[in-house]
Structure formats: structure tokens, C-alpha cells
Design brief:
Largest sheet: 5 strands, parallel
CATH class of the largest domain: Alpha Beta
Number of helices: 8
Number of domains: 2
CATH architecture of the largest domain: 3-Layer(aba) Sandwich
Distance between the termini: 30 Å
CATH topology of the largest domain: Rossmann fold
Shape: elongated
Structural class: alpha/beta
Order of helices and strands: EHEHEHEHEHEEEEHEHHEE
Oligomer: single chain
Length: about 220
């Protein structure tokens, strides 16, 4: 999943970014309001937005993001805990609000909840036929057999499953799994998809992840 973090506290940025990247998220960072606003036009799964920012405060950044028709879920992150600040943030278009100091498990749980809601899922469990994924535990099983996946392999499988019944292009996968890190080999996505397919069903490589020629990949709900 691809996250935009707009925060000017360098220590907090390092802590959040390093923890999220360890968990397989691609995290892009901006440290001021105008830069965060410009970057928000890119495709992200969640925007984590501080309120006290140089240039433009988080309230105004959030308002302008929504005025541009950008629907990316926004989690406002701030040292302010007054009720009127929370109300103002939500009225500006934020989807959730987290006051500092906070625990990282709570931050990640709120991010996962926003991702679930944006994909119309109510729980952490994604089920497509015999494929079961737990996005909180970052585990996957196929026909009850646990899959041993690398972080990138899991990220690709989760992203395809969240977008099931829709074609996902290689560019979309690259953006959501690697973010701004463009130092990847040209065929790395094909290699990783091939590995995931082999771990799912080595006898039928397209049993779950199907290739859409010249477009990308798709996971379809199985018919009963």
C-alpha cells in the first residue's frame, strides 16, 4: 500500500516511515503544506496529514485536497486534542483524527481501517474463494495452507485482492508497492507475480492471478 506522510517533525517522520516500510508499506514524505498538497494529486491509499505545517496548515491542505475532487482517505495527525479542532478537521474532509502522542499499533490500525473502508471491506479478512488474507497480520492462506511470502510478494497479492474483479496494471503495482523508489529492475513485477503464482498453485499458475494481455493482472471472485 502507498502512503503519503505530510509531517515536519523529522524524528516522527523517521519513526513512522521506518516502521511502515518494515511492514511493507511504500511511504512518500513531504514536510510542508504546499508540497503535500501538490503530492496529494498522485495515487495513494491513505494520506497521513499533520495540522501544524509550514506554508499551509493541515486544515487548509485537507480542504483544498477535497475541493480538487481527490477522494484519498485522510488521517489527520496532530498535537491538538481539543474537540473543536477534531470537528474542524473532520468538517474539512478528513476521514479520521489521531492526537499525539499515539501508539504505532493504533496508527497502523487506523490506516488499515481507512484502507478497508475505501475498498468497501468491513473486516481485516479478505476472502476470494479459497484464498484468505488477513491484512492486520499480513498473512495469506490458500485452501487452508499458509503461504510463505516475502514482504513484496504479500504486498502484490494483497493489492490485487483488494482490487479484485478489476484489472491492475504493472504501473499501479509499482506505485503502490514501491512508491517513489524507482530503482527496480524492469521485470521485477513479472518475477514476483510468477513467484506468488507458484506458491499459490504450482500446477495451475493462473488459478488465482490471471494475466490480462497488454494490460496487467486480475483476481476474480470465484462463482459459487
Amino acid at each position: 500500500m502507498r502512503i503519503l506522510l505530510v509531517e515536519d517533525d523529522t524524528d516522527l517522520v523517521w519513526a513512522i516511515k521506518s516502521r511502515m516500510e518494515q511492514d511493507g508499506y511504500a511511504v512518500d514524505h513531504e514536510s510542508d503544506g504546499p508540497s503535500g498538497l501538490n503530492r496529494a494529486a498522485d495515487t495513494y491509499d491513505v494520506i497521513i496529514l499533520d495540522i501544524m505545517l509550514p506554508g499551509l496548515d493541515g486544515f487548509e491542505v485537507c480542504r483544498r485536497i477535497r475541493s480538487q475532487g481527490i477522494k484519498t482517505p485522510i488521517l489527520m495527525l496532530t498535537a491538538r486534542s481539543r474537540e473543536d479542532d477534531k470537528v474542524r478537521g473532520l468538517d474539512c474532509g478528513a476521514d479520521d483524527y489521531l492526537a499525539k502522542p499515539f501508539s504505532y499499533p493504533e496508527l497502523f490500525a487506523r490506516v488499515r481501517a481507512l484502507i478497508r473502508r475505501s475498498h468497501n471491506h468491513l473486516t481485516n479478512e479478505l476472502i476470494v474463494g479459497p484464498l484468505h488474507i488477513d491484512i492486520a497480520l499480513r498473512t495469506a492462506a490458500y485452501h487452508g495452507r499458509e503461504l510463505i511470502l516475502t514482504s513484496k510478494e504479500y504486498g502484490i497479492l494483497e493489492y490485487l485482492t483488494l482490487n479484485r474483479n478489476a484489472v491492475v496494471t504493472k504501473d499501479m503495482i509499482e506505485q503502490h508497492i514501491w512508491g517513489d523508489d524507482n530503482n527496480i529492475y524492469s521485470n521485477v513485477i513479472e518475477v514476483l507475480v510468477s513467484r506468488v503464482r507458484n506458491k499459490l498453485d504450482p500446477e495451475n499458475k493462473e488459478a488465482v492471478i490471471k494475466t490480462v494481455r497488454s494490460l496487467g493482472y486480475i483476481i476474480k471472485n470465484e462463482k459459487p
